[in-house]
Amino acid sequence: MNNAGRRQQIFSSLSTAEDTEEAAYALAADLRANLGPNPDLAFLFLTPDHLERTAAAAAILQEEIGMRHLLGCVSQGVIGGDRELERGPAISAWAAHLPGTQLDMFHATSAPDGGIDPDGVPDLSGAELAFMLADPFAFPADGLLQLLNDEHPGVPIVGGLATGAGRPETQALILDDDVKHEGAVGVALRNVTVAVAVSQGCAPIGREAVITDAESNLIKELAGERALDRLQDEFGSLNEREQKLASQGILAGLVIDENKPDYERGDFLMRGVLGVDQDSGSIAVGETVRIGQTIRFHVRDAMTASDDLEAVISQITQDGRAVSGAVLFTCNGRGRNMFGVPDHDAGAISGALAVDALAGMFCGGEIGPVGSKNFLHGFTATTAIFLEPTA
């Protein structure tokens, strides 16, 4: 189909049918009826109940609506519209007519030495956005992100780790008419209007401090005192509610851009506190740190997560730009686990954007930008929002 002169159109559909083929045919019929044939790009997200029939589902979608490109995976749960299916059989599909958009698909794999095979590294030059879905068990997704940050700074990458059936060698990564079982698959988009919202959902506690002694991922001193002593002082100053949250786990918020005069929400990269050494007073965190870096401790907080998600979405929609659709990657530690109610992130985002064309998945790690660099996150919701092009 010739896309010349056509406007951007996006539609999503969700099926909870237990039979994979039945679900796929229903999704394809819904997409074709509401969007028409031959979309430029489609996403397909499946729960582990459909793992063995992933290729069949992808083939049915291709046969019935004939998309130019298809990307997807099997993960712990899926998202469709304002619903989040965290357990049980479900398939979510999303398709878009994107006139004039250039789409470059890629598949990156590991090298024999455990690094990344350079043949699979995508060229992101001039891209507005890239999506990436990766195997969490045998592929160095962090390494690929670092490589792409160095080679193509400022290009946002959105996606997540596809947990498959939750154990090694049970992955299914969909790339056009093929299903891959390792590595990372993705697509780079050029000539498209898209915005990215990253909501980390953590509340700061205590005060900012500069790392004055460190080695690898060990913080030895903060502002000249033992790091553990500083953390204990911060904990002692918290109110009862904050102490309860901190007892469930503390995160180290590491400042990304030290050149900013003040650090606000979204300026910190969250990494878990992995352990402490009582004798040395060191704190181990899930990231390499350096002397001179600023840190502030945080806790996971459902109330803050809700407020933060609303804030980052409102920043994108405040100019009144019409939204065509969105793709959401949220942590499998969010959902009911964090908020105590179903459909939190999907409902909040679809409501704020006033759009039904939303699809996505629950991840074992979410990919999204902080500042000008892309990172692998935890307990985060990252959303790619497709905006109507200006006339």
Describe the structure.
This protein is an alpha+beta fold and 391 residues long. The protein folds into 2 domains: 9-199 and 305-387, no CATH class; 202-300, Elongation Factor Tu (Ef-tu), domain 3, CATH 2.40.30. The chain is 23% helix and 37% strand. The chain is built from 8 helices and 26 strands. It has a 6-stranded mixed beta sheet with strand order 1-6-2-3-10-11, with helices on one face. Helix 1 (20-35) runs parallel beside helix 2 (54-65). The relative contact order is 0.17.
Structural class label: alpha+beta
Tell how many strands the DSSP assignment holds: 26
Q: How would you sum up the global shape? A: globular
Domains counted in the coordinates: how many? 2
Which strand-content bin applies to the residues?
35-45%
Instruction: Compute the CA-based radius of gyration.
Output: 21 Å
Uncertain segments of ≥5 residues (pLDDT<50)?
1-5
Mean of pLDDT: 93
| Spatial sequence of strands, sheet with the most strands | 1-6-2-3-10-11
Individual helix count = 8
End-to-end CA span: 22 Å
Helix fraction bin: 10-25%
Largest sheet: 6 strands, mixed
Give the secondary structure arrangement, pairings included.
Elements: E1 9-15, H1 20-35, E2 41-46, H2 54-65, E3 69-74, E4 77-80, E5 83-85, E6 91-97, E7 102-108, E8 129-134, H3 141-151, E9 157-161, E10 173-175, E11 178-180, E12 184-190, E13 194-199, E14 202-204, E15 209-215, E16 218-222, E17 225-226, H4 227-236, H5 240-247, E18 250-255, E19 268-277, E20 282-285, E21 294-300, H6 302-317, E22 323-331, H7 335-339, H8 344-353, E23 358-363, E24 366-370, E25 373-377, E26 381-387
Parallel strand pairs: 2-3, 8-9, 22-23
Antiparallel strand pairs: 1-6, 2-6, 3-10, 4-5, 4-23, 7-12, 8-12, 9-24, 10-11, 13-26, 14-21, 15-16, 15-21, 16-17, 16-20, 18-19, 18-21, 19-20, 22-26, 24-25
